[in-house]
Amino acid sequence: MSPFAAGTIGGAVVVVGLARALRGRFYAVFSAVLLTVHGLAACALFPHVGALAPAFVALHATLYINLLSLVWARPRPLAFRLLVSWPSAVFAAGTFVALPWAVAVTAGAAPRLLWLPYVVAALGFVDTWCPRRSVVRVAIDGRDAGGLARARPSRAELERPLRLAQLTDTHLGPFQSPARLRRIVERLVASRPDLALLTGDFLTMETHASEAELAYALAPLRALPGRAFACRGNHDLEAPRTVAGALAAAGVRLLIDEAEVVETPAGRVQIVGLDYHLRDRAARIARALEAFPREPGALRLVLLHHPGSFSLVPDGDADLVLSGHTHGGHVGLVSLGLPLTVLGLLSRIPDHGLWARGKNRLYVHRGTGHYGFPIRLGVPAEESVLEVEWCA
């Protein structure tokens, strides 16, 4: 066994053992799976990196240091993020992309362009740091669109639309500091929305205990009293008290299978916030929607973190559903003006933008952050305002 392989195995044993002892089973399993896949690929590639071997070893070590640091959930200082968090994430992402190279090497082939997956991973930073800002016009016309399909935004100039600012998948952590997220929220408030709607996944493993930091980042929403609402995403279930406390401090009403009716300058709006359910999703969504039937004369908005559950909303029971979760599909051609993403090609889950099914409409926001690997290539982060046309 080579020294590199021995160090890889030893490092994994230490990290997983401490993860299980100090943070729990979930984090231990997560670390074990990640380090197994990464370690096998790295061991296959290492003999072929040549003069870059010292850099490869150093970057490899940052992953273990970073995972070990996450045994204690707290935000890291900038120096740690620059020297450990960011390099380890990029290196892990590059190694994951390099899996086909690792398989080829194991089969006896000579690796070519081995640098390419790591360049792709590094470029994944660009679309995270450079969000696209846009205004998307949505017409709620009651037409039956048939089966699930991508829909086109309206081109009409509206005299007084309902202005919605959505915030989703902020993932406070190594790539989203409290200060950066606060600037994003300040821009959201400056867009003068009628409603601010937050659709979940506020934290990462690093920030499970960071209620004060998340509250600080969301604090500008206090300028919208009674007009900011949220639902929970899957990662919010990992630290529900942190999320609930921060949202309350920022004046955001968290809806957990609940509803509110709000009067806006554009008319009356009913907001239904559906929780993220790991089991019996269809039945629980149905019960929540039945518990809060339509308000006469009100636009019915549904906050639903996972767009894959859009098909579970009964036809005609939601004028507009707002979702996140997908980060826009992560890899695609959105930056070039084309809607194609890897997620869209491999699944039927709505990946980004405006969708329709029957009389229901869905908008999937690309989010402002990401969880784990920083690969957001050709799918930029998003800061948009929806202008909704409807007859109150």
Q: Could you please describe the fold and organization of this structure?
A:
- With 392 residues, this protein is α/β, with parallel strands linked by helices.
- The protein folds into 2 domains: 3-121, no CATH class; 126-389, Purple Acid Phosphatase, chain A, domain 2, CATH 3.60.21.
- 37% of the residues lie in helices and 17% in strands.
- The chain has 12 helices and 13 strands.
- It has helices spanning 3-22, 25-45, 53-69, 78-97, 99-106, 116-123, 126-129, 178-190, 211-218, 240-249, 281-291, 342-346, and strands at residues 132-139, 149-150, 162-167, 195-198, 228-230, 253-254, 258-264, 267-273, 299-303, 320-323, 353-357, 360-364, 382-389.
- The strands form 2 sheets. A 7-stranded mixed beta sheet has the order 2-11-12-10-9-8-7.
- α1 packs parallel to α3 (53-69), α3 crosses α4 and α9 packs parallel to α10.
- The longest helix is centred in the first third of the chain and has 21 residues, at 25-45.
